[in-house]
Automatic annotation (TrEMBL):
<dbReference type="InterPro" id="IPR003462">
    <property type="entry name" value="ODC_Mu_crystall"/>
</dbReference>
<dbReference type="GO" id="GO:0005737">
    <property type="term" value="C:cytoplasm"/>
</dbReference>
<dbReference type="Pfam" id="PF02423">
    <property type="entry name" value="OCD_Mu_crystall"/>
</dbReference>
<keyword id="KW-0456">Lyase</keyword>
<dbReference type="InterPro" id="IPR023401">
    <property type="entry name" value="ODC_N"/>
</dbReference>
<dbReference type="InterPro" id="IPR036291">
    <property type="entry name" value="NAD(P)-bd_dom_sf"/>
</dbReference>
<protein>
    <submittedName>
        <fullName>Ornithine cyclodeaminase</fullName>
        <ecNumber>4.3.1.12</ecNumber>
    </submittedName>
</protein>
<dbReference type="GO" id="GO:0008473">
    <property type="term" value="F:ornithine cyclodeaminase activity"/>
</dbReference>
Amino acid sequence: MPFVPSFASSGLLDAAATAARLPWSELADEIAALLQDNSMVVPQRAVLPLAQGGSLFVMPATDQAVAMTKLITLTPGNAGTGRPSIQGDVVVFDIATGQRRLVLDGPTVTARRTAAASLLAAQRLAPVPQGPLLIVGAGVQGLAHAEAFIHGLGVREVWIASRSRASAEALAAQVQALGAQARVVPDADAAVPHCPLIATCTTGKAVVLSAPPRPDTFIAAVGAFTPAMVELAPGLCQHIAQHGRIVVDTSDALHEAGDLLQAGLDVAALPTLGDVVRDYRNAALKHPPGPVLFKSCGWAGWDLAAARLALRHGSPALAAMESVTATPA
């Protein structure tokens, strides 16, 4: 009987197998390493509008050993149908041979690399990294950020605000299963004084947070990634710009960070997460205390970091090759 390769042995990984290769702290560390790698090339992503309001995202990136492209669809019309809004794959190639090595589950990579980037920012910038954590939005990114901050920062208490009480309670149950305390709150703004960690993880259709933060607050805002999208009130962004610090994930935020653009801020003048990572030792001396906003819009570099880590967990030989060929800053 001929051998028939299994789903996993063929390099096609489902959601669970993809997640298993992307542990939270290791993925945050891989993102930090990638930001210091001069060999990476990350073109601007292409976004093709689809009929009925959907979008196709094409996001390639490469270093000296690995090439990858993420192909995902965003279908807002799937909300409430039982079908996921984000679907697709991350295809990973070995540059030396041209071989396709992995096909990772796209939504899983998107969820985990986004939350891992927030985790890295919180590790470097959050004044009170242990929380409590307020999560606004109880969907996939809400859960991913809860997991990342519980495992990566040791958060033990999570407050959850969502337009859907049922979704908030479902997330609370998942948080409790992770060993942390959870409470559902009806008003995100009312919870702000109690939570020095905040993650806004909504669909970016409307302002969900407007209360002035505590001076020791760290906010990761990940739901708005076009100029028309918004989660944070303009006044909140302006308050943090005046009294604290705003860091964007990459320079692409110049034309993507709806929260900041609608607040009239000079996004081009803001530091990036790469700047923070490269200048980590001096950052605390240069910037006085105050609230910190990490504005994340998404970037194929994070997907490349996930691809590198997934390969290292599954292919020691290729991982060793990459460690030799990568060129750190």
